[in-house]
């Protein structure tokens, strides 16, 4: 356990009791010497006394709000526990960007794998900071409705065809269905800085439960997926 991480987590204002609990539990698993923080979802859910879907939702919110970064890892096709990076401010009040850079500059011997190796996140950032002349204010939280208005006013597509979410192998129509469901599901009062990343988190965390995958890698709609396809006039997706 890192006492610095625990002290930081206790002081952080997440605005949500569940997120606060998850953040404190992550800090409890943060190794003060190596920076490693990779408890399994099962362990976190058990120790936070919450369901798996609730845990994933809180983790996604903590990532979207900038409190943590999540490196999703796998080896030989098998999923491994995520690596979490806690965005602690240094004692001299350095900003978050500088703190993250310090973490990335740790020596390889420390055993810490910097989050910059997450290629999907790097592609997400490049896609979001594309060749648009006007960029969304990244330091300001806003509702999804307000964010959509800002993006449309700037002439940007909400989910571009070049977005990294399409590299996950999902059919394009499934992504469109997911966005419609996501936009209809999010609470009107919910605030986020980066709604594109929040959407990616929802899709990759399977929070919407719209599809499943066969053993040979083929996607198919679940009952919830079919219901939403009908609801949004996308009946063509139903085989």
Based on the model shown, name its key terms.
Arc Repressor Mutant, subunit A, 2 domains, 239 residues, globular, mainly alpha, two-stranded antiparallel sheet
Describe this structure in words.
Helix content is 44%, strand content 10%. α3 crosses α4 and α4 packs antiparallel against α9. The longest helix has 14 residues. β3 and β4 form a beta hairpin. The chain is globular and about 55 Å long. The strands form two sheets. A two-stranded antiparallel sheet has the order 1-2. Strands 3-4 form a two-stranded antiparallel ribbon. It is mainly alpha-helical and 239 residues long. It folds into two domains: 115 residues, Winged helix-like DNA-binding domain superfamily/Winged helix DNA-binding domain (Arc Repressor Mutant, subunit A, Orthogonal Bundle), CATH 1.10.10.10; 108 residues, no CATH class.
How would you summarize what this structure contains?
This protein has helices at 3-11, 17-29, 41-47, 52-64, 96-104, 119-128, 144-153, 172-185, 195-204, 223-231, and strands spanning 68-75, 78-86, 211-213, 219-221. By secondary structure, it is mainly alpha-helical.
């Amino acid at each position: 356990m890192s006492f610095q991480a625990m002290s930081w987590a206790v002081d952080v204002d997440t605005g949500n009791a569940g997120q606060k609990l998850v953040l404190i539990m992550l800090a409890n698993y943060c190794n003060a010497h190596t920076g490693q923080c990779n408890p399994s979802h099962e362990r976190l859910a058990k120790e936070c006394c919450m369901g798996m879907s609730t845990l994933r939702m809180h983790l996604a919110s903590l990532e979207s709000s900038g409190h943590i970064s999540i490196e999703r890892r796998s080896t030989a096709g098998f999923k491994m526990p995520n690596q979490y990076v806690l965005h602690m401010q240094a004692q001299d009040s350095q900003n978050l960007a500088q703190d993250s850079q310090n973490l990335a500059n740790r020596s390889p011997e420390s055993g810490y794998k910097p989050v910059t190796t997450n290629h999907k996140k790097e592609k997400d950032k490049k896609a979001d900071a594309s060749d648009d002349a006007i960029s969304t204010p990244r330091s300001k939280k806003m509702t999804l409705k307000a964010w959509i208005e800002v993006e449309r006013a700037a002439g940007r597509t909400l989910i571009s065809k070049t977005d990294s979410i399409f590299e996950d192998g999902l059919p394009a129509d499934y992504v469109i269905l997911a966005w419609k469901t996501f936009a209809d599901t999010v609470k009107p009062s919910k605030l986020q800085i980066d709604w594109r990343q929040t959407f990616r988190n929802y899709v990759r965390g399977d929070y919407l439960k719209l599809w499943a995958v066969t053993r040979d890698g083929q996607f198919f709609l679940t009952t919830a997926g079919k219901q939403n396809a009908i609801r949004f006039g996308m009946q063509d997706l139903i085989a």
